[in-house]
Amino acid sequence: MARTDGRDGNQLRPPSAELGVLRRCDGSCRFTQGGTEVVAGVYGPAVPRYSRDEDYTGPAVEVVVRSGTGAALGSERLLEAMLAGATRAIVVRELYPNTALSGTVHVLHGDGAVTAAALNALTLALVDAGVALRGLACGAVVAAQGSTLLLDPTEAEEDAAQGACFLALLEGAADEKDGAADDAVGAGGGAGDGAGADRILVMDSWGRCDKELQLKMTRAAVSAAKAAANFARVVLDRRTALQERNTPMETG
Amino acid sequence: MSLRETLDIPGVNDAFVLSCLSEGLRVDGRGLLARRSLSVKFRRGADAAGAELHLGDTRVSAVVAGELTQPFPDRPNEGFLTFAVEFSALGAPGFEAGRPPPEALEICRYIERSIRESNAIDLEALAVVQGERVWSLRCDVVVLDHGGNLRDACSVAAMAALQHYRQPAVDVDDASRRVTVKHPDQEEPSPLPLHHIPYSVTFALIRAEDGEVAYVYDPELAEEHVAQGTLTFSLNKHREVCTLHFPGGLAVTKETLLEAADVAATKATELHDAVQRGLELADEDFKARQLERLRKSAPDQIGAEAPLEGLAQGAEALSHLGYDDLHVTGTLRKEAEKTPEEDAGMAALLQSLERAADLTEARANAPPAPANGSSKPKPKPKPKSIPEPKSKPKPKPKPKPKARIEDDSEDEEETMQLDST
């Protein structure tokens, strides 16, 4: 076996997501991938607490990331900024002027690919909250060790890697020529997959990699992010089916 | 979509709560002294342990972590045990991330009194090298969802996490006085030395219209709002009262207080038994997983360190099994729109998944195939109305593994098909 847990280099750990796990939050999601477990909750759209946050063009988005113990470390600021940026890009801003949207992500247990889990959980929590979205922001992490790529690395693999890349796609957005395209970073339709303009929304990479390896890492991350997006779609389809079964539509 | 106010309007249910109580019922139909359903999920790592507690709608997570530090000079034999309680911004719309509100500080102080100041844990047993190195335990409690009775939830979660925590074994070199902490896989860690185990029982005191004061156990949010005071006991299973927390708001008679203490003793014993069962199961589960992990990895590997040497060769045996085989990536549709081809495709996918499972077993027993690098990740199948049959069952032996990632000549990785040979 190539990796400690017996996975192939291009295999993701099986993810699992549970929506609506918290009662007080408007939307919440518990996302697990291997040993990484993350709980995300969303409040909003709500009246902003401070009038300086009122913005007539759209919601004021704030995301807070905490470790499982509630302690805040400096490294979480970057993740908070990325998640807030991704949220601003996917929420249909025009529908929520002068409101505040606040998301909180608790990393209950981190075992690699925490940024991806946080983003996936936050996206699903936004859907659970009923916020109108242009598409789903789903991401994945790829680590490079030597010239081998490891998708969805564990914490040990991330620590040993010489470089890693986190990439999030805006999945499922129709071909729109509006603000969403401006918010997206990177090549539009760079995956070259044809139907559906899956665009790169967030990308963060670190480490020492030459150009070829960086390109390969990006491509691998795009495929992995698509798998994550597939998973999100599966989760939402199942939830919709469950809701339709539980609340039969009234006819007439 | 309606706008949510940042402030809840909890007073709406007050009259309803009072009328239920006058009939001896709670809002959710339980008895006055009945508790909501309790479940605890445990987690343990190399240097920390956690317990996630669900009490009705309240969700609280407690994590205990230990590290070696220097003791106070006037107490060279004592370790440290500190608590911190935070109300996460998830817990309620009014909670802000940042400084804990007064309620959180009150709960933290209560937990310190009931656990640390009642000598539940022998702090002297946390000493490693007298005057130089002691264990400092830190217990962080986070309220993820505020459904009422946070005091009980936080303190029971903290106590459960402390019982699940295992202190790593240490090696003290007598000559150099250097302390090495052993990983749990090297030497079995030991549970914390507990003198007794206090559990917290909270009553809400509600004055009915006729002036009678009723005490209800495990109040939920609506009841907390209508209550004029709360009364909390912390007892162990020997019916010893470790802490009494009665912050006022309502005057009660001596008889009521003693009655409530009696009830609390029974409830604390029930809590003890429930948490104990959970702890035993969690311990067995953790040990089983540890054995499984140790059995799989080589004897010289410690913990979850990855064997880096093998990675460069890539995965030869399973390289042709990509996402589609081991993960569901097909497009899901509603039942009505399913075409026969899609049904066949789904059946084929399931079949190939089964074959993949068989193959994984076979490969685990068979000797490894020649190293040939790992293949590129499989792209998601194109979302056409009739998906291409990407994962057909293979009647022949598996096709050869794909080119390595390092190989630049094959540039069309995106279009590689599973059934090409």
TrEMBL record, chain A:
Localization (cell): Nucleus
Chain ranges of the Exoribonuclease phosphorolytic domain: 11-131
Superkingdom of this protein's organism: Eukaryota
Stored SUPFAM superfamilies: Ribonuclease PH domain 2-like, Ribosomal protein S5 domain 2-like
GO molecular function terms listed in the Swiss-Prot or TrEMBL record: RNA binding
Keyword rRNA processing: yes
Coiled coil: none
Keyword Membrane: no
Record's GO cellular component terms: cytoplasmic exosome (RNase complex); nuclear exosome (RNase complex); nucleolus
GO biological processes: nuclear mRNA surveillance; poly(A)-dependent snoRNA 3'-end processing; rRNA catabolic process; rRNA processing; U4 snRNA 3'-end processing
Location, primary (coarse class): nucleus
Keywords: Exosome, Nucleus, rRNA processing
The family this protein is said to belong to: Belongs to the RNase PH family.
PANTHER family found in the cross-reference section: EXOSOME COMPLEX COMPONENT (PTHR11953), EXOSOME COMPLEX COMPONENT RRP46 (PTHR11953:SF1)
UniProt name for this protein: Exoribonuclease phosphorolytic domain-containing protein
Natural source organism: Phaeomonas parva
From TrEMBL, chain B:
Predominant location: cytoplasm
InterPro entries: ExoRNase_PH_dom1 (IPR001247), ExoRNase_PH_dom2 (IPR015847), ExoRNase_PH_dom2_sf (IPR036345), Exosome_comp_Rrp42_subfam (IPR050590), PNPase/RNase_PH_dom_sf (IPR027408), Ribosomal_Su5_D2-typ_SF (IPR020568), Rrp45 (IPR033100)
Subcellular location: Cytoplasm; Nucleus
Gene Ontology molecular functions: mRNA 3'-UTR AU-rich region binding
SUPFAM superfamilies recorded: Ribonuclease PH domain 2-like, Ribosomal protein S5 domain 2-like
GO biological process: exonucleolytic trimming to generate mature 3'-end of 5.8S rRNA from tricistronic rRNA transcript (SSU-rRNA, 5.8S rRNA, LSU-rRNA); nuclear mRNA surveillance; nuclear polyadenylation-dependent rRNA catabolic process; rRNA catabolic process; TRAMP-dependent tRNA surveillance pathway; U1 snRNA 3'-end processing; U4 snRNA 3'-end processing; U5 snRNA 3'-end processing
Keywords: Cytoplasm, Nucleus, RNA-binding
Biased composition regions of type Acidic residues, renumbered to the chain: 407-421
Exoribonuclease phosphorolytic domain ranges (all copies): 51-166, 196-265
Biased composition (Basic residues): 392-402
Positions of transmembrane segments: none
Pfam families from the UniProt entry: RNase_PH, RNase_PH_C
CC terms in the record's Gene Ontology section: cytoplasmic exosome (RNase complex); nuclear exosome (RNase complex)
Chain spans, region Disordered: 359-421
Family: Belongs to the RNase PH family.
Protein name: Exosome complex component RRP45
Organism in which the protein naturally occurs: Phaeomonas parva
Lineage: Eukaryota, Sar, Stramenopiles, Ochrophyta, Pinguiophyceae
